[in-house]
Amino acid sequence: RRRAAAAGAHRPARTIDGVEVRVGANLAGLADATAAAAAGADLAGLVRTEFLFLDRGTAPDVDEQTEAYRALADALDGRRLTLRTLDVGGDKPLAYAPVPASDNPFLGVRGLRFSLLRPDLFAAQLTAIVRVAHETPVTVLFPMVTTVDELAAARAALDEAVRAEKRGTPPGLEVAAMVEVPSAALKAAALAPLVDEFSVGTNDLTQYTLAAARGDEGVAALGTPWDPGVLRLVGAVCRAAGPSTRVSVCGEFASEPGAAAALIGLGVRELSVAPALVPAVKLAVRETTTSEAARTAAEALNAPTAAKAQAFFSPSTQP
Ligand code: PEP
Ligand code: MG
């Protein structure tokens, strides 16, 4: 099986009935970019740019960020680079940019909420991203989007960064929103006109949908993306996105056994996973028939429990 996965790793993955599903890699540094290219990733579907900002005394300036993003692009050799703007706050505070204290940091100032409170840091990051987007295909990805107004403000900040560079709009520049907040999933039809792509972050979407904190062992059994409530939200995003907005999934769920078929069945056409898992996920795509997966997914959405939904796609996990 591993040999079969490795053999097809560098070709695009198509389902049995010929639907292409792009398989990207999630990166948190330069070593991951090298690993992603070696593993045959079609793109970098998520760059967690926090790696540049954490564990230091001051924020990286525009030049430092531009260099770092360019190094990722070089390692990816022309593959699309999805740069997520800073997702700090929550469990990842920055010493040089404190946020208001919160009893519930995951429900406080994090992700895009943080960037909109710090337009100076946001503009610097967007400027670096725009500079690299003039050299390679780039998607700007905004984390923790909750409302249409926030997403519009983020787009306005990006437009301003493009204008300030005075070189026109970079030809391959695309805009994407993370769907991690249940309200955003339910408002996908209103958010879709503002973006080229939705990237569903099932790690956070699961924690917020089930009110079960990530990494809290006491509620680990509750916090599963197989919960039919989470699956229904993913399905709702795919339906609302329509043909003009792609839907990808970049949470850990995308690489779970059975999940590729479930997500393809719900309408997802791009998956992004840890670099080492790209070949196995491409193999899972190649073993899926879209029409059959769609029928099975429709049944899984109506399952009463996570275990029963999962059993539709992973027969070894009988409830
Ligand atoms: C997610 O929430 O699923 C996600 C991909 O983002 P992160 O894990 O960085 O919060
Ligand atoms: Mg997240």
What does this structure look like?
It is a single chain. The two termini are 26 Å apart. Strand 3 (43-48), helix 3 (62-76) and strand 4 (80-84) form a beta-alpha-beta unit. This protein has 319 residues and is α/β, with parallel strands linked by helices. The relative contact order is 0.14. It is globular and about 50 Å long. The chain has helices at residues 2-7, 30-39, 62-76, 112-117, 119-133, 148-165, 182-186, 188-191, 202-210, 228-241, 259-266, 278-286, 290-301, 306-313, and strands at 13-14, 20-27, 43-48, 80-84, 138-142, 174-179, 197-200, 246-249, 270-273. The protein has 14 helices and nine strands. It is 44% helix and 14% strand. It has an eight-stranded parallel β-barrel, surrounded by seven helices. Residues 180, 201, 203-204 line the site of magnesium ion.
